[in-house]
Design goal:
Layout: H1 2-21, E1 42-49, H2 68-82, E2 88-95, E3 111-117, H3 139-148, H4 158-170, E4 192-193, E5 197-207, E6 233-235, E7 242-244, E8 257-267, E9 271-272, E10 283-289, H5 330-344, H6 351-355, H7 378-387, E11 401-407, H8 413-422, E12 429-432, H9 435-452, E13 469-471, E14 474-481, E15 489-497, E16 503-510, E17 517-522, H10 550-553, E18 563-564, H11 589-592, H12 620-634, E19 646-647, E20 655-660, E21 663-669, E22 675-679, E23 685-689, H13 697-703, E24 718-723, E25 738-744, E26 751-756, E27 764-770, E28 791-798, E29 803-812, E30 836-840, E31 846-849, H14 850-855, E32 873-875, E33 885-889, E34 894-899, E35 918-924, E36 943-949, E37 952-960, E38 975-980, E39 1001-1002, E40 1025-1029, E41 1042-1044, E42 1047-1054, E43 1074-1081, E44 1105-1110, E45 1118-1121, E46 1141-1144
Parallel strand pairs: 1-2, 1-10, 10-11, 11-12, 18-23, 39-40
Antiparallel strand pairs: 2-3, 4-9, 5-8, 6-7, 13-14, 14-15, 15-16, 15-19, 16-17, 20-21, 21-22, 22-23, 24-25, 25-26, 26-27, 28-29, 29-30, 30-31, 32-33, 33-34, 34-35, 36-37, 37-38, 38-40, 41-42, 42-43, 43-44, 45-46
Biased composition (Low complexity): 602-615
Pfam families: T4P_PilY1 (PF05567)
Domain PilY1 beta-propeller: 664-915
Length: 1189
């Protein structure tokens, strides 16, 4: 037990530290942005100080002569010393007082000390009944000092004390603590307003036999010492006798008698000050008792204990409570006792009236709980406290949960059971029989409360229609639900799209001729939020419930799932040696067990099963653990129950593969670590693949502890390549055709995979590129987190006379987590991701690497000093079917260009020597030029457009800066840029100087007098582009731009609301954030369209932006080419056929641009008329109609 004791203390400290040191570093910080986790919970200790606490704890391992009260004092001090700092704590107790003639009920008390921040300094106390704290004493120490001053005496009025505690939490009038503050049972004056005063009083002689002057005085003596400053003597005799100056006193010497003023009648209406301040604040009662509920009893009446008497809060005493009378002469005594008791009870509603319907007749006809009349209404009270809102002024429900500790009740199982009945928190009833267990119980409770304080309710998030996958009239929506624990739930749900573009669910109505969907049950409201009645095509009505319906509901039973990993040399994932099963010998414990501390059998690996232990695989407990982990990820909980679980789909996007003959699969990657292959017909998973590098996450998911660090799996985008070798339009295995799926892990790791999925149920790893210790090729050791989407292209490999056009994928080398550190001066230089790689799509051979082929793998010579997480824009400028130019940006705010075909211009015959490619920095925009640090960051590829105007060709480069891994950052002045590349067809000249911010025009101020619809650049031939400063604090660009018809469209994210207002001071209010969609003139940055379709807003009715979403980071705008139609909307006929275009962003119900919001029908502002697609440069230079983007 000793080791366990110390471990609990260590865990408690760890939790406390983790709550103040968590640093988020990815886009999920927008879901953890609210401060509700910082609101300290309220904890009121209600502690037993009754006479039974005098008993010795014979099982005390530290000192078998200590009494229960001594054990309590020592344990409580230890608990206070080590308690987490994110708590508000207060104190209340009962008993600690004998049965006096005047104040017999004084075992029931008011709140001793108000709930206060545990590390706050104790404020001035004034007149009270507590020991005096030294200057600077903090609450955690003072509460321990208060407990240390207690003496055990009195009975066990549990229900009355809980009633008083309830009144304190709710801000009701003081009942049992209603008295002048120096009296021992009085509530502390800091806990209430409207202090009571003494209306009438009388002097009382104090002698040894009375002993009821102060709770700090041992009964029967006036010789105890107290530290209460209220005790000031007025001496009148040589023996030290005299009178008290006020209502309390302490004898510092042996005094036989003195005078003390007794207050006969108190007046006033003190009202407790509720400690509940915030709507998201958790509230707890922690009750410790060493006995059953009990009141004074009379053996002469046959009483064996005091459990047959009702709590006075429930029912006043009556003569019937003392029947049968042992002798007639007792009648007068009990008549007087009843009269005295009932007249002294403070005026307050009886407890059953206080509870209302929740009382369930607890004070009358209901059975006594556990047979104790003395415990009546206790369970009903704590359940009512937990289930009821106790502050109408705050949003939501402010409940109060109860924990209980049964101390030294081993011989009282019924009493223990009663205390368990009072606990409302799950696993909230504790038992303790010695000092170690008592401290452990208190610590476990505070540990649980501390963890709960970092939790907060998940708001409703609107779906981002940019992330939907539409395939014919089918729509697949990936979903996720944020959690405060490691495992986030996800799903993919299937809906339909009507002919007029609405998303609908079952039941569907189809056109009897075309079979197109005409209507169905609505799925989302006008805000893009799921309706509770939403019914997807794969599962039952599930509404906004992420875990219900969809593909998750159709997962096979755990033992029947086809789950694979890549732990063997066999590339066939369906081979037995790649099965994700406990029976697979290729899955040692090291492959699935996370090594947390590097020490076998210590810390987080107490059973010696960590990978560093060479004996781990031979230990039966390790095998059991491995099988349990694998069973868990297959969908079986440790208790054997089945869980239908898919991980969250955050940045990846599902992709449909049409295999022909009616067979379709949707591939969905999740942060649980699986790539799922799902039948689009019934939503059933056919197989799933988890990269071996993600297997150690299983333990984290199974433990599912509270965390604000999101766990990532496969979070990167998917790219499908339909490789039609003989170009016959069909993908046939016999023709050596293939379907290949490329993906990176993004935050999940440093690897790219190419899976051959030609056969729908026989996936094969075609190749893998990863930065791993056992991979040493001089290139991949610079591969960072694989964010960049592999871009399909063709590349000529060979010489002038003998070259081959090879299929390749191009990607940036990823993100370096060094950039997670927001303070530039504290950040280490990037060592990962400073490369661009071109990889053979079929073989995985690295044909070209910027760092390897231009700088001989010498990182110091590489001028690219910052990581490249964005995609690479690939160009074929001479239109010969092969790439010849690359554009990319980096996280240092730079824009780069690579001219791949420089070798074509020299005299040798080796035309395709890409070692001679030319790297040029086009722009250096990280700062305004004052210090050269990388303040602005580019996470996405630049959008390139060729524009012909007035006989001249212009090339624009459009992109925006934004800290994607810290979207709430407000320290950077982010901007959107449109740059002019003056060397449209030629290489930049030697000595080309990169553009900086000073070279560019401020779009808001620099074009004064220029027509804001101008489609040509200003006359100044030195014009190099423009930038746009955002109006809202922290606004940034977190997605690629789209250039279309001389307009540039982009989205932003800002930690402000739609009106630009920042967070509320209320920590329970979720901080606002909003997404905006901009449409600006490509050459001037001016507004060009009526985006909100309100002529009264913007400049001359034109708007720079429109608010397009909340609580989401929008993707890039989408260009939608609608079906060709005649002018009247019908089928095309000769001479009457037009294909209209619209641009959509986020969840906006209306397109951001279409034919209806142009400039008075001219087509200048919006999108009107037919579009000649040959005039629009595609986003990818190379078009293969068999490629699904």
């Amino acid at each position: 037990m000793k080791n366990k004791h110390h471990l609990m203390g260590w865990l408690l400290l760890t939790v406390a530290l983790s709550l103040v040191s968590v640093v988020m570093a990815d886009e999920t910080e927008i879901y953890f942005a609210d401060k509700s986790g910082t609101v300290a919970p309220n904890v009121l200790f209600v502690i037993d100080a009754s006479g039974s606490m005098k008993q010795v704890v014979t099982t005390d391992t530290q000192n078998p002569k200590r009494t229960r009260m001594q054990v309590l004092k020592d344990s409580f001090q230890e608990v206070m010393n080590t308690a987490p700092s994110n708590l508000n704590v207060g104190l209340m107790h009962y008993a600690n007082h004998g049965l006096g003639n005047d104040y017999w009920w004084s075992s029931i008390k008011g709140t001793n000390f108000p709930i206060s921040p545990i590390d706050a300094e104790v404020p001035p106390l004034g007149d009270d009944n507590l020991p005096n704290p030294a200057v600077g004493t903090v609450v955690r120490k003072f509460l321990a000092d208060i407990v240390h001053d207690w003496e055990a005496n009195g009975y066990t009025p549990i229900v009355d004390s809980l009633y008083e505690a309830a009144r304190y939490f709710r801000g009701d009038t003081v009942e049992w603590g209603m008295d002048v503050p120096t009296i021992g049972w009085a509530a502390h004056p800091l806990t209430y307003d409207n202090a009571p005063t003494c209306k009438t009083s009388h002097p009382e002689p104090c002698v040894k036999s009375w002993g009821q002057c102060n709770t700090n005085i041992v009964p029967g003596s006036c010789a105890s010492t107290s530290h209460n400053q209220c005790c000031v003597w007025i001496p009148t005799g040589g023996d030290g006798s005299g009178s008290c100056k006020n209502d309390d006193y302490t004898c510092s010497t042996v005094i036989e008698k003195c005078q003390h003023t007794i207050c006969d009648e108190v007046e006033g209406d003190p009202t407790y000050k509720s400690p509940i301040q915030y709507s998201c604040q958790a509230n707890y009662l922690v009750l410790m008792s060493d006995g059953k509920p009990e009141y004074p009893y009379f053996p002469g009446l046959g009483d064996t204990d005091g459990t047959r008497y009702y709590p006075p809060s429930v029912k006043n005493l009556a003569m019937s409570d003392f029947n049968p009378m042992p002798a007639p002469d007792w009648t007068a005594y009990f008549t007087g006792l009843i009269a005295t008791n009932n007249s002294q009870i403070k005026v307050a509603p009886p407890l059953q009236d206080y509870l209302g319907a929740a009382a369930n007749n607890c004070g009358t006809t209901a059975a006594a709980p556990r047979g104790y009349n003395s415990g009546r209404c206790g369970p009903e009270l704590t359940r009512w406290l937990a289930d009821t809102d106790h502050n109408d002024a705050l949003k939501g429900k402010q409940g109060i949960d109860t924990y209980t500790v049964a101390f030294a009740l081993g011989d009282e199982p019924t009493g223990t059971a009663y205390l368990k009945d009072l606990a409302t928190k799950e696993d909230g009833a504790f038992t303790a029989d010695n000092a170690e267990q008592l401290a452990g119980a208190f610590k476990a409770i505070l540990n649980s409360i501390s963890k709960a304080s970092s939790s907060f309710s998940s708001p409703t998030y609107a779906i981002d229609t940019n992330n939907m996958l539409a395939h014919s009239d089918e729509v697949y929506i990936p979903m996720f639900d944020r959690s405060t624990t490691a495992m986030w739930s996800g799903n993919v749900k299937k809906f339909a799209r009507t002919v007029d573009g609405k998303i609908v669910g079952e039941p569907l109505v189809r056109d009897p001729v075309t079979n197109k969907v005409i209507s169905g049950k609505a799925v989302v409201n006008d805000k893009g939020e799921f309706l509770e009645t939403a019914d997807d095509l794969w599962g039952p009505i599930s509404g906004a419930d992420v875990t219900s319906g969809g593909a998750a509901s159709q997962l096979p039973v755990p033992d029947s799932r086809n789950l694979y990993t890549d732990v063997s040399a066999n590339s066939d994932l369906t081979a037995a040696e790649n099965a994700l099963k406990g029976s697979n010998a290729n899955l040692p414990i090291a492959s699935v067990y996370q090594d947390n501390d590097g020490n076998s059998g210590h810390g987080d690996n107490p059973n010696g099963c960590d990978p560093d232990n060479p004996d781990a695989n031979s230990r039966s407990e390790c095998t059991t653990l491995k099988n349990q982990l694998i069973d868990f990820i297959r969908g079986k909980n440790p208790d054997g129950t089945v869980r239908k679980q898919m991980g969250d789909i955050l940045n990846s996007k599902p992709l449909v593969v049409d295999y022909g003959d009616g067979e379709e699969r949707i591939f969905a990657a999740t942060n649980e670590g699986f790539l799922h292959s799902i039948d689009t017909g019934n939503g059933e998973e056919q197989w799933a693949f988890m990269p071996k590098g993600l297997l150690p996450n299983i333990k984290t998911f199974m433990e599912n502890l509270p965390t604000k660090d999101h766990v990532y799996g496969i979070d990167g985008p998917l790219t499908l390549w339909n490789y039609d070798k003989n170009l016959d339009g069909d993908i046939e295995t016999a023709d050596q055709d293939k379907r290949i799926l490329f993906f990176g892990l993004r935050r999940g790791g440093n690897a790219y995979y190419a899976l051959d999925i030609t056969e729908p149920d026989s996936p094969v790893i075609l190749w893998k590129k990863e930065n791993a210790p056992d991979v040493d090729d001089g290139v991949l050791d610079s591969l960072g987190e694989t964010w960049s989407k592999p871009t399909l292209a063709k590349m000529r490999v060979g010489s002038r006379t003998s070259n081959t056009l090879r299929d390749v994928v191009v990607f940036g080398a990823g993100y370096d987590p060094n950039k997670d550190v927001e303070t530039v001066s504290d950040r280490l230089a990037d060592t990962l991701g400073r490369d661009v790689m071109i990889v053979d799509a079929l073989s995985g051979e690295i044909h070209w690497s910027l760092q390897r082929d231009l700088y001989n793998n010498v990182a110091a010579d590489n001028p690219v000093k910052h990581s490249i997480p964005g995609d690479i824009r690939v160009m074929d400028m001479d239109r010969n079917g092969a790439l010849d130019r690359l554009y990319f940006s980096d996280t240092g705010g730079n824009v780069w260009r690579v001219d791949m075909d420089h070798d074509l211009r020299d005299s040798d015959l080796d035309m395709y020597n890409y070692d001679e490619a030319i790297l040029t920095k086009i722009a250096d925009l990280g700062t305004n030029g004052d210090n050269g640090t990388d303040t602005r960051k580019f996470f996405y590829e630049p959008d390139i457009a060729l524009i012909q105007n007035n006989g001249k060709v212009h090339m624009t480069i459009s992109l925006g800066s934004g800290y994607r891994t810290h979207p709430l950052n407000t320290n950077t002045e982010d901007r959107f840029y449109v740059l002019m590349d003056p060397n449209v067809y030629n290489e930049p000249p030697a000595g080309f100087v990169a553009l900086n911010n000073a070279d560019l025009v401020n779009a808001k101020t620099g074009f004064t007098g220029v027509n804001d619809n101008l489609l040509t650049p200003p006359a100044d031939t030195t014009y190099k582009g423009w930038y746009y400063d955002f109006s809202h604090s922290g606004e940034k660009v977190l997605a690629p731009a789209v250039t279309f018809l001389n307009k540039v469209v982009f989205t932003t994210f800002a930690p402000v609301d739609k009106d630009g207002q920042g967070p509320s001071p209320d920590p329970c209010e979720v901080p606002p954030n909003s997404a905006r969609a901009y449409v600006l003139d490509l050459f001037t940055g001016k507004a060009v369209a009526n985006l909100d379709r309100d002529a009264g807003t913007g400049t001359s009715g034109k708007d720079d932006f429109v608010v397009a979403g909340f609580n989401e980071i929008l993707d890039a705008a989408k260009i939608i080419f609608r079906l060709p139609s005649a002018a009247d909307g019908g089928a095309c006929v000769e001479g009457d056929c037009q294909q209209t275009v619209e641009i959509r962003v986020g969840k906006l119900e209306m397109p951001i641009l279409d034919a209806s919001n142009d400039e008075q029908g001219t087509g200048v502002g919006g999108v009107t008329g037919s579009v000649d697609l040959t005039d629009v440069l595609p986003r990818m230079f190379w078009l293969d109609h068999n490629v699904t983007d």
